[in-house]
Specification:
The protein contains 5 helices and 2 strands. Helix 1 packs parallel to helix 4 and helix 4 packs antiparallel against helix 5. The protein has one domain: Membrane associated eicosanoid/glutathione metabolism-like domain (Four Helix Bundle (Hemerythrin (Met), subunit A), Up-down Bundle), CATH 1.20.120. It is mainly alpha-helical. The two termini are 31 Å apart. The radius of gyration is 21 Å and the shape is elongated.
């Protein structure tokens, strides 16, 4: 028998304990997971977009900083005396390490456990769109009602992603 580089799990086949087969615990790159029509590239595309948003905001923080006070004075907390510029860019950048962290975790788990179906991927794209809208509103008009609406939309979508994932795991669907 050919040895696999991936850890394997031996499962009974057809309810009989004598006949066994091996199945890889790790998905293979290029192989579909969950829904047979969802590829790893499609599952991870929203993650790549979210990471790109984080880097764009980081560079905006740096450029907002270099256009302001001086080199090396990057602040990452909201300050009442500086609601624009460096503090605003830093705040928007910091927000990418709040809800998106839960997004990264659920996408990783759904991929590894083969629970990322078409609906999951659609919700991933909607979540990332809400994060982009939230960041855009924050760095342009900074309208609190619009910004909160985008944040709340992302939060609700992420909650549905986690709920769907948890149901599929707990009910072995």
């Amino acid at each position: 028998m050919k040895e696999s580089k991936h850890p394997t799990l031996t499962l009974p086949k057809g309810g009989e304990g004598k006949e066994r087969h091996q199945r890889s615990l790790l998905p293979k790159v290029g192989v579909t997971t969950g829904d047979p029509h969802v590829s790893i590239q499609v599952i991870l595309l929203p993650v790549f977009i979210q990471v790109a948003l984080t880097f764009v905001l980081l560079f905006m923080t740096r450029s907002a900083h270099t256009g302001s006070a001086g080199y090396g004075d990057v602040r990452f907390k909201d300050e009442p005396n500086d609601p624009t510029g460096t503090a605003l860019a830093g705040s928007v950048y910091n927000s990418q390490f709040q809800l998106p962290v839960l997004f990264y975790v659920v996408v990783t788990l759904a991929y590894l456990l083969r629970k990322a179906d078409f609906l999951f991927v659609i919700l991933s794209f909607v979540f990332v769109a809400a994060r982009i809208a939230h960041a855009y509103i924050a760095v342009t008009s900074n309208d609190a009602k619009l910004r909160y609406g985008a944040f709340a939309a992302g939060l609700v979508v992420l909650a549905f992603m986690w709920l769907g994932f948890a149901i599929r795991i707990l009910l072995a669907l």
